[in-house]
Write a sequence for this structure.
C-alpha cells in the first residue's frame, strides 16, 4: 500500500466534524431496514476531528510509541498481525509513533465487550453487521470520513455498503460479504436447479431429497422476503423496541406460506427438513441428499463428497398461484469499526488501520488463507474468488437479500414454532382463510415481541 500524506487525510477527516462522531444519534431512515440498539452504555467521548487538520505528523524520532489495539477472530490473528507489521513499516509518518497489537476476539463477542465498556474496548475491532445499531447507540463507532468514506462507498459491493449504513450514515468498514445461504446440488441428480418445484421433482425421481430448514426464522424469510413481505424491528437509543414493521398477514405473506406448505407436502418425496450434520447427507455411501440449502461453512465438505458432481448456485425461484418469485434470505457481513478517540491524531491512525484491514490486499489475503468472501469489488473479480463456486453462488444470491438487522429472541422462537407447524403437515389441507388466520396470529405475536 502506498504511503499517504498525513495532512490531506486529516483534512478529509476534519470535513466530517459537522456530522459528528460515532456517538451521535442518527436521524432519518435507512435504505434497507436496520433496527437500532438493544443496550445503552455510557457514551464514549467524541473525538475532536476538527482539530485533526492542525495536528502535526508523528515524529519518527520521538522515542515514545502508543499501542493501538485491534481485535480479530482467532483464525486470522497471526495473518492480521503480520500484514499490519509489514504495512506499518512502510508508513513513515506513523511507524515512529504507534505500534499495533492484534488480539483474538470473535465478531460475536466483540460487540458485547464493546457495549459492556466502550472505553476499555479495542481501538479497531471486527463485528457482525447485526450489531451495528447497538454499537452506534453506545457511542462505540467513529464514522469514516473523507478518503476513508470514499473507499467504503466506491470499493465494496452494494450489500456490504448497506450493512455499514444506519439511517443514511456510514459507520464502519465492510470486511466480508460471505454470510448467507444458497443451493448446493448433486449434478448427477439435479440437472436444472433453477426452480424449487423442479429441484424437488428431480430429487424425488432419484430417490433423494432437497434439504432446507423451514423451522427457522432465518431460513423462512427466503419465502416471505421473496414475495416482497417485510419484517424488521425498530429500536430507540436505549435498546427498547419501539415498533415492528411486519406484513406477513397480507397477500404477500399468504403466497409465501402457501409455498412452504406445498414444499412440506413433498416431505420424504423430494424434500425434507434439514437435520444436524446436513453436509454428510451427500455421502456416496447411503447419502440421501440431491440438494441442500446451506452456506459457505459447508462448502469443503459437500465438495469433497460430490467431486465432479459438485454444484452451487443461487436460490431457485418458486411459483404460487401462477406468480413466480425469486427466493430471498438474510445477507450477512463482517464489518470493522473504529472506536471514537479524544486524540484526533490517534483517531486518524485508527481509521488508517481500519481502511487497510478492509483493503483489497487484506481481503484477498484472508480469502486465500481462510476462505473469507471479499466485499471488495476488485477482490471479488480475482481468479481465485471467481473460481470458488460457493462464493460465486452466494454473491449472486446476496443481491436478492437485505442485510440482517437485530431481532429479539422471541422472534426466533415464534418463527421456529410457525415453521415446525408447517413442516409437521398441520396446514397441508388448509384453505386460504385458515392460512391467513395463522399468518395474522404470527404477525401480531411478532409485533408484540420485545
Amino acid at each position: 500500500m502506498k504511503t499517504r500524506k498525513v495532512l490531506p487525510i486529516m483534512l478529509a477527516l476534519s470535513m466530517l466534524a459537522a456530522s459528528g462522531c460515532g456517538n451521535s444519534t442518527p436521524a432519518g431512515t435507512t435504505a434497507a431496514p436496520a433496527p437500532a440498539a438493544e443496550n445503552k452504555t455510557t457514551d464514549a467521548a467524541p473525538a475532536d476531528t476538527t482539530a485533526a487538520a492542525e495536528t502535526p505528523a508523528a515524529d519518527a524520532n520521538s522515542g515514545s510509541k502508543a499501542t493501538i489495539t485491534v481485535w480479530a477472530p482467532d483464525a486470522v490473528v497471526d495473518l492480521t498481525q503480520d500484514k499490519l507489521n509489514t504495512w506499518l513499516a512502510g508508513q513513515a509518518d506513523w511507524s515512529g509513533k504507534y505500534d499495533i497489537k492484534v488480539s483474538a476476539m470473535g465478531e460475536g463477542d466483540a460487540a458485547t465487550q464493546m457495549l459492556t465498556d466502550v472505553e476499555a474496548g479495542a481501538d479497531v475491532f471486527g463485528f457482525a453487521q447485526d450489531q451495528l445499531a447497538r454499537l452506534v447507540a453506545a457511542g462505540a463507532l467513529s464514522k469514516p470520513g473523507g478518503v476513508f468514506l470514499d473507499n467504503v462507498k466506491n470499493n465494496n459491493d452494494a450489500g456490504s455498503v448497506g450493512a455499514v449504513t444506519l439511517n443514511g450514515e456510514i459507520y464502519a468498514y465492510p470486511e466480508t460479504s460471505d454470510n448467507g445461504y444458497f443451493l448446493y446440488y448433486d449434478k448427477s441428480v439435479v440437472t436444472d436447479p433453477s426452480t424449487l418445484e423442479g429441484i424437488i421433482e428431480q430429487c424425488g425421481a432419484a430417490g433423494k431429497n432437497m434439504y432446507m430448514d423451514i423451522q427457522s426464522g432465518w431460513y423462512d424469510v427466503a419465502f416471505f422476503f421473496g414475495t416482497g413481505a417485510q419484517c424488521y424491528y425498530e429500536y430507540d437509543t436505549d435498546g427498547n423496541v419501539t415498533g415492528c414493521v411486519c406484513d406477513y398477514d397480507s397477500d404477500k405473506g399468504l403466497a409465501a406460506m402457501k409455498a412452504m406448505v406445498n414444499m412440506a407436502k413433498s416431505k420424504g418425496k423430494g424434500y425434507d427438513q434439514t437435520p444436524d450434520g446436513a453436509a454428510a447427507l451427500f455421502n456416496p455411501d447411503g447419502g440421501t441428499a440431491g440438494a441442500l440449502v446451506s452456506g459457505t461453512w459447508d462448502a469443503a465438505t459437500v465438495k469433497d463428497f460430490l467431486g465432479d458432481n459438485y454444484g452451487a448456485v443461487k436460490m431457485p425461484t418458486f411459483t404460487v398461484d401462477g406468480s413466480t418469485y425469486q427466493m430471498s434470505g438474510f445477507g450477512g457481513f463482517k464489518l470493522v469499526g473504529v472506536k471514537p478517540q479524544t486524540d484526533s491524531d490517534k483517531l486518524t491512525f485508527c481509521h488508517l488501520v481500519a481502511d487497510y484491514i478492509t483493503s483489497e490486499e487484506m481481503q484477498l489475503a484472508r480469502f486465500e488463507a481462510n476462505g473469507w468472501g471479499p466485499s471488495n469489488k476488485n477482490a471479488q473479480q480475482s481468479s481465485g474468488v471467481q473460481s470458488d463456486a460457493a462464493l460465486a453462488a452466494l454473491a449472486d444470491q446476496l443481491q436478492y437479500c437485505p442485510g440482517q438487522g437485530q431481532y429479539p429472541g422471541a422472534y426466533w422462537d415464534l418463527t421456529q414454532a410457525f415453521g415446525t407447524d408447517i413442516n409437521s403437515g398441520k396446514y397441508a389441507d388448509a384453505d386460504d382463510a385458515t392460512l391467513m388466520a395463522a399468518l395474522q396470529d404470527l404477525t401480531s405475536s411478532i409485533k408484540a415481541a420485545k
